[in-house]
Amino acid sequence: MKASALLKPIKLGKYELPNRTFMAPLTRCRADNPQNAATSLMAEYYAQRASAGLIISEGTSISARAVGCINVPGIYTQEQIDGWKLVTDAVHQKNGRIFCQLWHAGRVSHPDFHEGNLPLAPSAINPHDHVFTAEGFKETVIPLAMSRNEIHDTTIDFSKAAKNAIDAGFDGVEIHCANGYLFHQFFTNCSNTRTDEYGGSHENKARFFFETLTAVGSTIGFDRVGVRLNPSFHGFFGITIDRETIPTFEYIAKRLNGYSNLAYAHFTEPYWAVDGVPHAPKEITKHFSAIYQGTMVTNCGFNSERGHRIIVEGYADAVAFGKPYISNPDLVERIAKNAQWQPWDETTFYTPGPQGYTDYKRLAG
Fold first, then answer.
1. How many domains does the chain have?
2. Which residues on neighbouring strands pair with residue 243, listed in sequence order?
3. Between 216 and which of 18, 44, 162, 336 could a Cys-Cys bridge form, CB atoms 3.0 to 4.6 Å apart?
4. Which residues, other chains included, contact 306 with Cβ-Cβ below 8 Å and sequence gap of 6+?
């Protein structure tokens, strides 16, 4: 195979990156301390993977009200900022770049995380799923439909979190709008039945997101901001696709073109087969690359050959790898040497400690 397109440099926002092999955001639940702060173990983990063109951090809670899972790090206290400084310093010492994924779980949460208060959501609709709490998995509940003030306050929380991320040494942020979490809940009819300016039309369902994107970009610069979208997400966390789903995401993609200096848009291919799902495209990147004109990052199910091909064919500018980066901290080097990729151990994805986290071997020499 000729030199992989995954290894070619790329300009991303204000940065010149050495390759197009990105590390996708991966929840690992290692912030197992009362402060939910990043740790030295996490710094070692991310630094091991610093040869990636860009690391996108695990989902990071923007506020206490955003939390939806145990042992995930936050970016809303000074202790959390200081913890992330350990990580960003370690990555930068190895000449890496790292963005912080800003996350609000919305209704995919539980009162246990909120002193007994209900999780926030666009509408009071239970996703009928489970979340991982300190007492194990618990069933979700009917959330609290957000007031206008709560929506506006959450936009402010995202903006503050973005500033905190830059203060912590991150090179930028990615706004998490995918996988059934808060913004995604606003995008879909199954979770958003509002009749005010935040529900109904495509424009209204996307209003909260664009208000937040504008606030975040105005705070840290749009060339330091990426967004993640998963239009084909279906059948998990109560999210279903209907005839309006893809048109809503098409509306979002078109509007993103108006943010000419946005760092990137990160689209995810289907996590599982959607052949039997009406209104669901099978090839998300190809579909949306015809709409979104900025830097396109794709993710999910790629190997070295498929990643090379989708860049060469012009559908994506970079490929973000998730699970392969768990077990291959030297993924870029393996691609360059056409070396075998190590398998991952799913039993250690979310467990404490270094096993299955920092103990994967690198190529000899």
1. 1
2. none
3. 162
4. none
pTM of structure:
0.97
Catalytic-role residue among 181, 259, 292, 357: 181
Residues 22/319, Cβ–Cβ less than 8 Å? yes
Q: What is the pLDDT of residues 70-119, one digit of tens each?
A: 999 999 999 999 999 999 999 999 999 999 999 999 999 999 999 999 99
328-351: burial string, b at 16+ Cβ within 10 Å, e else: bbbbbebbbeeeebbebeeebebe
Domain assignment of residue 50, given as a range: 5-348
Can you tell me the mean pLDDT for 311-332?
98
pLDDT tens for each residue of 277-319: 888 888 999 999 999 999 999 999 999 999 999 999 999 999 9
Burial class of 273 by CB neighbour count within 10 A (0 to 12, 13 to 18, 19+): exposed
Backbone angles phi, psi at 322, to 5 degrees: -100, -90
* Distance between CA atoms of residues 314 and 60, nearest Å: 31
> Is 365 within the bounds of a domain?
no
CATH of the domain at 249: 3.20.20.70
